[in-house]
Design a protein that fits this description.
Pfam families: Acyl_transf_1 (PF00698). The chain is an alpha/beta fold. It folds into two domains: about 240 residues, Malonyl-Coenzyme A Acyl Carrier Protein, domain 2, CATH 3.40.366.10; about 70 residues, Malonyl-CoA ACP transacylase, ACP-binding (Alpha-Beta Plaits, 2-Layer Sandwich), CATH 3.30.70. Helices cover about 50% and strands about 15% of the residues. Strands 7-2-1-9-10 form a five-stranded parallel sheet, sandwiched between helices. Helix 4 crosses helix 5 and helix 10 packs antiparallel against helix 11. The protein is globular and about 60 Å long.
């Protein structure tokens, strides 16, 4: 679809697409859909040729799937494969795109801001840099539930002030749901403090503490790769993680992607932005349904639909076409 066609198609829609990040991967992802749509495997082949290893095999076998340098290109490729199938089937072109963490790169590829080949190479490098930024076992992440955002930030600040390390609010996923990241011992202290203040704390099975100060060394190296990558302004507006805003120039886009490595994912504000812009329908374009489930809780969202199986894809295509008045 050309830039002009995308622009015209997005003008009247009340639909936004969201792309998931790490944690949505599972062995065997998209296998069923690949039996129905040749484009799935073709997209994986295209991406595999760019990075030099078999992404489909990793996605299906799963042995290396949770190593972040492989997780990131696999998830991005899966999301773009679904996006291409959606457009091929005549699905509604969304008014906005947004991606959670890694998913921001999927959104940028879908919006024509960068090529799939460049993006999978970027996120493969991103994963490697993130993995080496913090020695194995020294970092951690945890979900804090049931406390105000400000209270979680306060607990992180208190613990950081009394130590040589750091712990930060990494993902603002929804009201009362904040993920923290940082030095493992400090994450555990915040978890204890959260429980003492009436909240819940759940440790997350991750190998890298994302979106916190520990990722600054990785961000500095990653910025160099971003400078050498061809990037254009998106043809469909992409809401950025770091500020829940839309870049007005490529310099700002590159800066936001660099800062995204060590700053919080502002997902709650992103969803608020979409609702304030009149979005009523959310489609999650990638494996799993975590983001769709979060969106279902929002007051102005009428439908939140995943695409990760043939039945779900068919249901979403039909539901959005009906909701947008494209078919009766």
């Amino acid at each position: 679809m050309s830039a002009k066609q995308l622009e015209q198609a997005t003008q009247a829609t009340k639909t936004a697409f969201v792309f998931p990040g790490q944690g949505s991967q599972k062995a065997g992802m998209l296998a069923e859909l690949a039996e129905h749509f040749v484009g799935i495997r073709e997209t994986f082949t295209e991406a595999s040729e760019a990075v030099g290893f078999d992404l489909w095999n990793i996605a299906q076998i799963g042995e290396e799937l949770n190593q972040t340098e492989f997780t990131q290109p696999v998830l991005l490729t899966a999301s773009i494969a679904l996006w291409r199938v959606w457009l091929e089937l005549g699905g509604v072109v969304p008014k906005y795109l947004a991606g959670h963490s890694l998913g921001e790169y999927s959104a940028l590829v879908a919006a024509g801001a960068m090529s799939l080949a460049d993006a999978v190479k970027l996120v493969n490098l991103r994963g490697k840099l993130m993995q080496t930024a913090v020695p194995q076992g020294q970092g951690a992440m945890a979900a804090i539930l049931g406390l105000d955002d400000a209270k979680v930030v306060e607990l992180c600040a208190d613990v950081t002030a009394n130590s040589d390390g750091s712990v930060d609010a990494a993902n603002y996923n929804a009201n009362g749901q904040v993920v923290i990241a940082g030095d493992k011992a400090l994450v555990e202290l915040v978890m204890t403090a959260a429980k003492e203040n009436g909240g819940k704390a759940i440790g997350l099975p991750v190998s890298v503490p994302s979106h916190c100060a520990l990722m600054k060394p990785a961000a500095e190296q990653f910025a160099e790769a971003l400078e050498q990558t061809a990037i254009e302004l998106p043809r469909i507006p992409v809401i950025q993680n770091v500020n829940a805003g839309i870049a007005s120039d490529v310099v700002g886009l590159r800066t936001a992607l660099t800062e995204q490595l060590y700053q919080s994912v502002q997902w709650t504000k992103t969803m608020d932005f979409l609702q304030n812009e009149g979005i009523e329908y959310i489609v999650e374009c990638g494996p799993g349904n975590v983001l769709a489930n979060l969106a279902k809780r929002l007051p102005k969202i009428e439908k939140a639909l995943p695409l990760d199986s043939k039945n779900r894809l068919d249901d979403a295509l039909n539901a959005i076409l009906v909701a947008e008045g494209k078919i009766a």
